[in-house]
Structures are given as C-alpha cells and as structure tokens.
Amino acid sequence: MKSPGTHLKTLRDTAPLVQNITNFVAMNVVANAQLAVGASPAMVHAIEEAAEFAGLAGGLTVNIGTADAGWESSMVAAAQAASAADKPWVLDPVAVGATGFRNRLAARLLALNPTVLRGNASEILALSGEVASGKGVDSGDPVSAAEDAARYLAQRTGGVVAVSGAVDFVTDGDRAVRIEGGDPLMGRVTAMGCALTGVVGAFLVGQKPFEATVAAHACFGLAGAIAAARAGGPGSFGPALLDTLHAMTPEQLDAEAGIAAV
Amino acid sequence: MKSPGTHLKTLRDTAPLVQNITNFVAMNVVANAQLAVGASPAMVHAIEEAAEFAGLAGGLTVNIGTADAGWESSMVAAAQAASAADKPWVLDPVAVGATGFRNRLAARLLALNPTVLRGNASEILALSGEVASGKGVDSGDPVSAAEDAARYLAQRTGGVVAVSGAVDFVTDGDRAVRIEGGDPLMGRVTAMGCALTGVVGAFLVGQKPFEATVAAHACFGLAGAIAAARAGGPGSFGPALLDTLHAMTPEQLDAEAGIAAV
Amino acid sequence: MKSPGTHLKTLRDTAPLVQNITNFVAMNVVANAQLAVGASPAMVHAIEEAAEFAGLAGGLTVNIGTADAGWESSMVAAAQAASAADKPWVLDPVAVGATGFRNRLAARLLALNPTVLRGNASEILALSGEVASGKGVDSGDPVSAAEDAARYLAQRTGGVVAVSGAVDFVTDGDRAVRIEGGDPLMGRVTAMGCALTGVVGAFLVGQKPFEATVAAHACFGLAGAIAAARAGGPGSFGPALLDTLHAMTPEQLDAEAGIAAV
Question: What superkingdom does the record give (chains A, B, C) (predicted)?
Fold first, then answer.
C-alpha cells in the first residue's frame, strides 16, 4: 500500500483534470482546494455538455448540495458517462435525509455505484436507511455511529465509503482505517465537507480508490489542523487552509498523517 | 427589552437552522456569516424542496439579488410555508427599482408580509413607491431620506423594516432606533447587505422581531467597525469580519453597541 | 494615448455601473475585483431583465464559464442590448474548445462583435479555428503562440483582443502591446482570468477600448505581482489582490506598469 505522500506526489506530477458538479456555495472553495493540492478543476454541469466533458476529464465529483430536477439530469448523465469511460467519480449526498427530493436524488445516484461515497455520519446513516439526526447540512451523529452503515454501503455499491467527522472513517467494505486530523473550527466554515470531496476526486484520478481516499482525508485533515492553529477564526481559516494545502509536501504528509488501521 | 448581547447568547445557545434563498454572489458569504454568529445555515432553494424545508427550519431569508422566474416560485412557496408554520422570514429586495421584473417580484414578496424587510435606502424608497436614486445594487440615497418610507412599510406589512447605511434605522412602525457601526470600507466589499440579512435571519429565530433585528444590526455593525480597523483593505476585510463575528461576546456587544432610540 | 494611471483615475472618478453575466465560481470574485478598482458591479443575468439592465449599465461583461442554454439566451439578449445602446461589452470564452456546446456558444457571441475579447492562449487559438491544447479551463499554449490568432480575430470583429498569460498581449488588429506582470501563483487560484475580464469591463466604460484594455491588464498584472510577493500561498493571495487593487494609485500604476509596444 503506497503512502499518502506518494499519492500526493502522483497528484502533483499528473495535475489531473477533474470535473465537478457541485453546489453554488462550494464551487469557488472546491476549485481552489483542488488547485491548491495540484489538480486542474473544471466546473461543468450544463446538461448540454456535462456527459461529453466527463469523457475528457480524469475524474468527476457530484455534490447534491443545491441540486434541482435540472441538475439531477446532468448529474446522472455525467456519472453514467464517467462510469462508461472507467473514470472514478465521487458522490457527496449533502443533507440527505432532510427532504423527499434529496432522498430520491441521493438514492438514484447511489444506485449508479460511485467509486467513492463521502458524507458526514448523519448522511451515511440516512443513505443506509437507518435513523439519523442531522440538522440541515450538519451532522447530528458521531462518526462511530455510522461505521457499520459505511461498511454496508461499501459492500452494496462495491465502492469506497468515507465518513467525515472528528475522526474520519474510510472503508471498502473489507479494509477500514480511521484518520485523525481537522479541527472543530472547520464546523464553523461552510463547504468544508464539499472541499474534502473535491480533494478526494483529485487524489482518485489514476490511483487506487481506497488508498487514494485515505490519502486525501489524511492530507485534508492534516492541512486543516495546521491551518486552524495558525488562523484567528473561521474567516482567516479559509485562506490559511489553501495556503497549507499548497505548501504541503509528500514528506510532511507521510510524517504527520494520523492514519490507523481498524 | 432584552439587550443585544442577550439575543446573541440565545442565538449561540440554540444554534438555529436557517434556510436561505439568496443570490449566487452572496451564498458563501451568507453561510459563513451565519456560522460565525452561531447559526446552522442551509441554502435550499429548489422548487422540489424549498417549501418542505421551510417547515423544518427555524427561519428563512429571501434575497432577490439574482432571482429569475423559476426562483420566484421557490421564494413564494418557501415564504408561504414559513408563514404557515409561524416561522419568521426576512425579505431583502436587492436592487428593487432597477428593472420591471425586480419591481414585480419584490412587490409580490412584500405582499406576503415578511417578518422583517431589510434594504438600503434606495431600495426602501423604491418599495414604498417613492423616487429613489439607486445605482444597480448600491444606494444613492442616505438612510435619513428613507425613514418615513420605512415607517410606512412597517405599518403596511405589520412587520419590522430596517434601512442599512452609515447609520442604520430599524422600526416596527411604532418604535424606532438608529444604530451606529460599520465602516465605509464595507461599501467596497460585495454582499455585505446580504450577509446582514443572513445575520438578521439567524437572530430572529425564537426571538422578538424588532428587538432581534436591532440586536443583529448592532452585532454586525460593531463587528464591521472592528474588522475594518484591523483590515488592510477590502480583501482582508472579509476574513476579518468573520473572525470578529465569531469572537464577539455578549458582554462586548452590550458594552459597545451604538443603539439610540429615535 | 492616455496613461494607464489616467484611465484608473477616470474609473475611480466615474464609478461606472457594470453588468456582469459571469459564472458561478467567479461571481463573488468579479464583483469584489470591480469594487476594489472603483466600479459598481451588478450581477444581472435573468432573461426577465438582462437586456433591460444592459440599457441602464455603463458596460457589460459576458463569461461563458458555467453557461447553459438558458443563460445563452440572456447573454445574447444583453450583448445585443449593450451594442444597440453603444455600451462596450467584453466576451470571456472560458474553456472554448472543450465541448461542442461551448464552441457553438462562443462562436455565436463572437459574431455579435464584442468590444473586447479576452481569453487565454488556448481559448484564443480555439476561437480562431486553430489547434489548441487547453485542458479544461487552463491554457496549454503560450501567449506568443496566439498572437497571430489575436490579430486575426481583432480584424474580423473590429474589436480589441487580449490574450492573458505570463506576458499579456493586447491588439486591435493594427496596434499591439505586450504587458508584463502577474505571478505564477495566480495559476493556482480560480477565477483570476474572470476577475481580469471584470476589471477590463470596468475600465472600458467611457474610455477608448484599446487603451482601456491595456490599462486594465497593466493594473491587474501589477496588482497580481505585488500581491503574490506579499501572500503566503494561493489562499492569502485572494485577499491580498483585492487589497492591492484598492490601494493602487494612478501614480503607482504609471510608474510601475510593464507595457511595451510590439
């Protein structure tokens, strides 16, 4: 199993083109996070071109944060095109559980078997059909409560499932790791989960899904912890996070990543 | 009448879920401003779920900055659902007076009697049917010129009307206060009025509308003044404002708020 | 020929209202860049009002970054209204060459003869019908490779064409200049080309197109170089760029602009 730093080095060396269909709140943040780690982001969601572009890009992320019926068509078309071209794609089921539309959309996308499913504990519990206590986009459940649901979903989709929180959990249904990092301040900054989804999409291109997802979480979590220690609050945290992601070296990531097999 | 600091403490203690239908320029800023003061924002505007979500959230903000006919349907449905569920909602009639579409949309939403109407002087004048001299989204009129219009609109809607500018004015048609704060630098930063609308929406949940609106303006104005003194320009002002809102204590707000009864 | 500083002074003195139909990633950045240089931005793209507003505004920018068929109608209507009212408008053909939809849309807008066409080298090559090697929104070609294509497009449209990169190139088909400035760090920050397009739109109002476009590139490039020297990475670069644009004086711009006639 290659180290997180080796994954980061490959990402920097290949600078993959990543297509993102994400929400309006997060678009700028996701693009800047992908640029900071070394990828080339493209926000392409129009139904007129989303599937065509998925054939050009190295990978895709789909985030339902502000989706509607029109965006649903683009998401489905792009995800199908990515799968057909053997490109990895990530699903971020933002606030699933909150409304009927969101539940139907997330279920439809999950049935397309994303390479990686990434969410908070309440979202993963809701997707697995269990009772969750999320409030809007925020999780009301600890990561530990969603570990079984994550394993179940990984086995059902054949993909990787990542649960983000105080300690992240990543599983492919067989293997599983926990990853320390981040900072409570990140809960006071919008689109942090969306940015992590974007970073996962960048690490995935041309790399093994489970290992790449672990590396992405380790990189983002370490950068978050460093940036929080330097920031004066949630406003200065955002710029500090991007500076830290950009300055992160493979050696630093390997030395400081908090990964533990379960 | 409870103090502004008491309102801030209640907001922090309850961390209300606030739904926002706002414009594309402001979405990220509004979400981060609400998080910084202690609320849990959710940007939910799709017609497929906007009204359903309004029943779940503690309050709603509606901002017409980049609306079109599709968004109009969502705004009306969400505002009606909020009213039906006795949830407070705020209307921000961005750039009303500039185009026919904007005038019709703002009038339609105003007829739904928002709990709070918040705008700059030109917008409040335009909504009241008087001659205004706004330029796009920027006010061309001083707050003092819109005080009578604000009283008139408050009496007509039965709600609170707030006019933002160098000195803010808040009235419920009977009582009125002026609030000092802010900084001219905020006129060189986009979406500051939208962010204030979001902060008003956060303070409103579970609190009395007139007092909560005054507290929100005092909090935002004080944070703006402090942040402007620390910032090196309009770019560093944005992060400084969020840091300051996050660090504001109820005691500081009570000690430094510039509120004067009219 | 008036100096860049003289153009900046005129912009600050007149504070023109500029309408922008730009992409979701860039809206906040474009608005803040225009505010920082002294303009009054308005993001107005709804088909219900885009053309009406173009008659009110002093100028218009059209950026196809996240366009779809609905936005295409607004872009065409606003560009036609701007032209009919003798208002200058800028076209930014983001990622043209990537998809068939994007190629058709850019060609249709180009046929409306924008006052200024601004893009990276791959975009200008693609628009001129030559082979380009762009990757998503990023250029794969040096500016020098697109100078002939820029001259050709300027002659065909009767407007100004600007190619942005390590050294910018601006031509009206007859005259041409190269402009030094910027920093490689800007390639790691999203929406920098879009922000430059917004700054060009601000300089254009009431000023001669070729000279104003040169002045805008000189101003943005100088600010970018100064901000990059002060920033700790791509995250802190954003706020530093806006602070620097806001603090730029006409005298500083005239003293330090790196403009050379070709």
Answer: Bacteria
